[in-house]
Amino acid sequence: MPNHRSALKRLRQSEKRRVRNKAVRSAIKTAIKRVRTAIEEGKPEEARAHLGAVVRLVDRAVTKGVLHRNNASRRISRLTVAVNSMLQNR
Q1: CA–CA distance from 47 to each of 1, 28, 54, 69 (Å)?
Q2: FRET pair for 58, CA 20 to 30 Å: which of 10, 34, 67, 71?
Q3: What would the pLDDT profile of 50-85 be if each residue is shown by its tens digit?
């Protein structure tokens, strides 16, 4: 346990950020699962709709500092490729 006032404040801030970041990451994972499930079930319209939600969530996570921009770009790219290849194979 920290002893200085500044260290106590830092502890409170980091805990608040950790909880917020965890919620953001969890929401991203859930949204990605929705896209992957729609792809596996062969529902292209649903997959495309969920893909838009994933892109918004991931981009917001980058602006908040939860994800690195390259990590976000890679996730979006791979999901987009999966959805587009599914649409072409229809």
Answers
A1: 47, 15, 10, 23
A2: 10
A3: 999 999 999 999 999 999 999 999 999 999 999 999
Q: Which homologous superfamily is 5-88 in?
A: Ribosomal protein S20 (1.20.58.110)
Tokens of 31: 């949204």
CB neighbour list of residue 32: distance below 8 Å, 6 or more residues apart: 54, 75, 79
Report the alpha-carbon distance of residue 35 to residue 84 in Å, rounded: 12
Q: Give the pTM.
A: 0.86
C-alpha 20 chain-centroid distance: 13
How far, in Å, CA of 54 to CA of 27, rounded? 9
